[in-house]
Structure formats: C-alpha cells, structure tokens
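How it folds:
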Amino acid sequence: MLSNFWGAVQTAILYNIKPDHADYLGGKELTIKALADKSSGRILGAQIIGEQGVDKRIDVIATAISFGAVAEDLFHLDLAYAPPFATTKDPVLYTGMALDNAISNGTPLMTPTELIERQASGEQLQIIDTRSKKQYEISCVKGAIHIPLAEIRDRVAELDKNVTTITYCNKGVTGNAAQNILLNEGFKEVYNLSGGNKNYQIIAQMLASN
C-alpha cells in the first residue's frame, strides 16, 4: 500500500474505476481517487473525474467525511439504485470495500506513481499481468510478466516468494484475486496495482511528459 504523510497522518491511497450507471444504458466511467487514514480507516478526501454522476458521489463522500466515516462505512451505505442512474453496487461502495480491504484485510495497494518510483530506484520487483494475452500485448506495465489469473496456481514455482510482487489487471478486480492467491501461497509481500493497467498508462504518460 502506498503511504504518504499529511503531518502525522499516514494515508492509504486508492484508485477505483467504475461506470456511473449501467453500461447498457450509456454508463460512463468514473475514476475515483480516495484517501483514508491507514491506522483508523477514516476517510480523509476524494477526487473524481468523469463525464456524469460525479457530483452525486462527491456529495456522498463529503457527507461521510463530515460524520467521521471510515472506509468500511462507505461499503455499507444504502444508496438509491435504478439502471439509468446507478449500478447495483455504487462506485462509492466499491471504493469503501477496496480501501477497507487494503487497510484491514492484508491486501495492500500500490499506486502507479509509487511503482514507477520504486522501479526507477532499482528495487527488485516482480510484476504480474493477469489479463489475457491480447490485452498484455497491446499495453502492459514496464517489466511485467504475463501469467493469466487461471494459470497463477499452476505457475507459482516460476515466481520468487521473497521478492516484492505486484499483481494487476485492467482496473483492479482480477489483480486483487491474483494477490489473494499469492498471499495464500506464502508470498512475503504482494501488492495490487491500484486502478490497474488503465490507470498506470495514464499516470505513466503524465509523468513522462513532465
């Protein structure tokens, strides 16, 4: 998990990419960046980018912050649902679930920025792309090896359990599944790339242009 310091507060950072409402009714992706206090789980802030539905989610998170909500509280919110306006599990709920898992359940996140910085420092990292071969060939994280999720258990022997490992997919869900498998196999330190390859490519391009 990437941790920064706001004064004395150590923060966990999550990127979550989800549609604002049902895809078949023209749902558009929202990219949510959320921060929480690593020790208490308390939500500290959020930013959202998207074509529609941004104000609703920011209002929900801002209200939660004003009442001192923790990440798990977001997951348990009961929000309005109808296919033209939301998904069955709102992006805010997924944000709370993923943040809480990273903080409380031993499945830490790594942001693209931290990954790029750690690679630049020369640190030995083991990066696993769990997507399809076609997706991997189109674009991938620098230095990644391709092991689809369905093959992870059978190919554990190819990996070093003592090297810091980062799993990823396109947006984060499959990467988390691979992360759990490797942790259960006894890997020492495994991170899921927050926001997946989609978020990585955007941030890598931004950093390269600066």
About this structure: The first helix runs from residue 54 to 66. The chain has a mean pLDDT of 93. The radius of gyration is 17 Å. The beta strands are 3-6, 9-19, 29-37, 43-50, 109-110, 126-129, 145-146, 165-168, 190-193.
